[in-house]
C-alpha cells in the first residue's frame, strides 16, 4: 500500500503516489497527494507518468527549490518502496521535457490529409484487389528527446490502427415497372470462424414488391482487410465487376430482373488479411501513416 514519504530536505511535508498499475511506463496513471503534518493539502489525478512527475515536482517546488535529479531519484525510490521498478533516466527526461508528451493527440495534430498510395502499391506489388491506405499527419512539433519521440510515435500508431469491421455495407438499386428507381442499404454481419480462412458473408436482395423489378444492382463494399476466396450468386450465371475505392473494394452485381418474392442470395468465402500500421517521419513535423493488408498462408504460416 502506498504511504506518505517526506520530501527530501523537509520534515513537515510529504507526498504520496497511488498508481493505478504496478507496471512502470509512460502510460502509468494515478493519484498524487500532498500533505503536511496536519493532513492532506491537495491531491491530483494524473493521466500518465509525465503528469505524475510534473505534479510531484510542482508540490515539491512550493517548499524547496526544485532539483530535477533529486526529484527523479526520490520518485524512483518511492516507486521501488511500493514494489514498482522505475527508470531514473526516463523520470529525469520527463522532468526536463516540455508538455508535448502529455497532451492529447487531438491537441498535437494540426492537420490530417489523405495521400495517394498508388506508387507505393506498385513498388510492393500489391494485388489488384488489395490496397494500402495512407494519410499524412502534421503535428505541432516532435519532442527533441529520442525516447519521448518514440513514445509519441507509438501513441500515433495506436490511434491510427485499422479497426477490423464486423459488418459489410451493401447497397442496391432497382427499377419498378413505372420507371421509378428505388435504393436500399443495409449492413450484413460477417461470420467469423476459428481460423483466418473461415470468414463468410451472405448478401443479396429479396424482391418485396408486387411486381418484377429490373436493372437490379447490388454493391457490396468489401473492406481490404479481407481477401475474397470464392463468391457465387445462387444458380445465376453472373460475374461481378470490381471497383477499387479509397477504403473498400466494391463488388458490383448486375441482375436483369428479380420476380416478386424471389430471393437472390450472394455467398462469399473470405479470409482475413494481416493488417499493419506503419509510420514514417517525412519531415520534422510531417508523418506518413500507412495501413497495409497482407495475405497469409495458414499452412506455411508465410506472408505473401
Which tags fit this structure?
about 300 residues, alpha+beta, Immunoglobulin-like, 8-stranded antiparallel beta sheet, 18 strands, about 20% helix, elongated, disordered C terminus
Q: What can you tell me about this protein's structure?
A:
The structure is a single chain. With 304 residues, this protein is α+β, with helices and mostly antiparallel strands. It folds into three domains: 5-96, no CATH class; 102-160 and 274-303, no CATH class; 167-272, Immunoglobulin-like (Sandwich), CATH 2.60.40. It is built from six helices and 18 strands. It has helices at 49-61, 68-81, 88-96, 105-108, 118-123, 146-159, and strands spanning 5-6, 13-19, 30-36, 39-46, 109-114, 133-139, 167-175, 181-192, 199-206, 213-223, 226-232, 241-244, 248-258, 263-272, 274-281, 286-294, 296-297, 302-303. The strands form four sheets. An eight-stranded antiparallel β-sheet has the order 11-14-9-8-7-10-13-12, with no helix packed on it. The protein has a four-stranded antiparallel β-sheet with strand order 1-2-3-4, covered by helices on one side. A four-stranded antiparallel β-sheet has the order 5-6-16-15. A hairpin with a 5-residue loop joins strand 7 and strand 8. It is elongated. The two termini are 51 Å apart.
Count of helix runs = 6
Largest sheet: 8 strands, antiparallel
Provide the domain count.
3
Strand portion, in percent? 35-45%
CATH-derived topology of the largest domain: Immunoglobulin-like
- The CATH class name of the largest domain reads Mainly Beta
Proper CATH architecture of the largest domain: Sandwich
